[in-house]
């Protein structure tokens, strides 16, 4: 009996990496190509106008796959981000000639819709590219926004969620981060005001101000507020 196509060492490695980035299309480095597998391949192939093939096609569970050359990857990544998708770049992080068995791979960068674009083509009317909305208990909500082209980073809180939704509409970000438990409720509200923005749901812990990966000027004063929670998600 032939083994499952998913049980090869390479596919086990890929599936472990994909499990850590379930909301992103994984660009898995194999020599001079970035390969995509399974649902990622089925999603990306028509969007990038590239061929969808299969790996281990002789097996009953042959794996859908597609790929792009490393030297041409930037344009493909930008295209996916512009369409609202996150892309995780998974590189070979050890010399293949010195590896014992399978080459070790790790995700070295995640490109999101709000932080991807050609600086020469930025629309001056859309200054802030990435925002986060954090509805907190008691009716107070927090909003944070980052201008990816200048590094300007601002956050605020308000008693009215509607007030912050109106501010988001004024800002016009390319991507809005929200806590995963709030996605279903917020999705129609944001779609009505920001139909072109990508909505990204993050785990609640991504909004934990105490675990923020950086502390820019003024962040300490916000840390225990809804604004600080929204800022932590943008920083993360």
Enumerate how many helices there are, as a single number: 7
> What's the mean pLDDT score?
84
What is the architecture of the largest domain at the second tier of CATH?
2-Layer Sandwich
Major sheet description: 6 strands, mixed
Radius of gyration: 20 Å
CATH topology of the largest domain: Nucleotidyltransferase, domain 5
Helix content: 25-40%
Report the β-strand fraction as a percent range.
25-35%
The order of strands across the largest sheet is 3-4-2-1-5-6
Number of structurally distinct domains: 2
Helix-strand makeup class: alpha/beta
State the end-to-end CA separation: 46 Å
Residue stretches low in confidence (pLDDT < 50, at least 5 long) are: 119-126
User: Could you state the CATH homologous superfamily of the largest domain?
Assistant: MutS, connector domain
CATH class of the largest domain: Alpha Beta
Note down, in words, how this protein is organized.
Strands 3-4-2-1-5-6 form a 6-stranded mixed sheet, with helices on both faces. A 5-stranded mixed sheet has the order 9-8-7-10-11, sandwiched between helices. The chain is elongated and about 60 Å long. The chain is of the alpha/beta class and 236 residues long. It has 7 helices and 11 strands.
